[in-house]
Amino acid sequence: MLLCLSAALCTSAFAQWGEEEMSDKPEWRDRMFFGGGLGASFGSSYDFVSVSPLVGYKLTPKLAGGIQFQYRYTKYKYTNPEVSTNDWGFSPFLRYNIFPPFFLHAEYEYLSYVYAVDTDGAKLRDSYNSIMAGGGFFQPIGRNAGFFALLLYNFSYEEQRADRFSPYTEPLIFRAGITAGF
Questions:
Q1: Of 87, 180, 161, nearest to 125 (Cα)?
Q2: Which helix (H) or strand (E) holds 104?
Q3: How far apart are CA 8 and CA 123, in angstroms?
Q4: Nearest to 87 by CA among 109, 55, 119
Q5: Which residues of 97-129 are buried (b: 16+ CB within 10 A; e: fewer)?
Q6: Which of 23, 27, 89, 126 is most buried (CB neighbours < 10 A)?
Q7: 1/148: higher pLDDT
Q8: Contact 35, 181 (CB under 8 A)
Q9: What percentage of the chain has pLDDT greater than the value 90?
């Protein structure tokens, strides 16, 4: 639930690439792109702040790969005492532009996260691996910015169990926001 709410409330800034022309032998610097995301949510149950920089490389004019790093700080206010957690992870990805404005996206996500075991402040660290794929839409707004919407299916999704907490509450993951390239 936390991830779904935060994803819906976060404004992301991903470096974007598209159908621009590449010279026959572009410099490696011209194929690199950078970006990332920032997110925050503050409420009566929890506070949440996230930072997720990324670096990518244009393999062809339509295919790019890269890696995004994640860091999240969460303060749960419904426990007594309050519990603060620090989560981190990374997501190597591939993105293929089918035709503007649509693209396909696939990623592997490793997430090391902490969750509250009960309301007395006890917490545990666990890791979660996800294989996700889906598609998206990108609408440019000027030269280096635009709106994106991305729907991914988590093929590694597991229902919540008494002995295993999942960071996702459902297999579908929706991301949307305003992008800005660097």
A1: 87
A2: strand 102-116
A3: 25
A4: 109
A5: beeebebebbbebebebbbbeeeeeeeeeeebe
A6: 89
A7: 148
A8: yes
A9: 36
Helix (H, G, I), strand (E, B) or coil at 8: helix
Closest of 175, 177, 174 to residue 141, by C-alpha: 177
Q: Which fold has domain 2-180?
A: Porin (2.40.160)
Highest mean pLDDT among 15-19, 46-50, 114-118: 46-50
For the stretch 26-65, pLDDT in tens is 788 888 887 777 888 999 888 989 988 888 898 998 999 9
Query: CA 151 to CA 137: how far, in whole Å?
Result: 9
Q: Which residues contact 68 (CB under 8 A, 6 or more apart)?
A: 36, 37, 52, 53, 54, 90, 91, 93, 107
Report field, pTM of the whole predicted structure over 0.85: no
To which H or E segment does residue 162 belong?
none
Alpha carbons 177 and 182: distance in angstroms, whole number: 16
63-74: pLDDT as tens digits:
999 999 999 998
Task: Name the H helices within the chain.
Answer: 2-9, 28-31
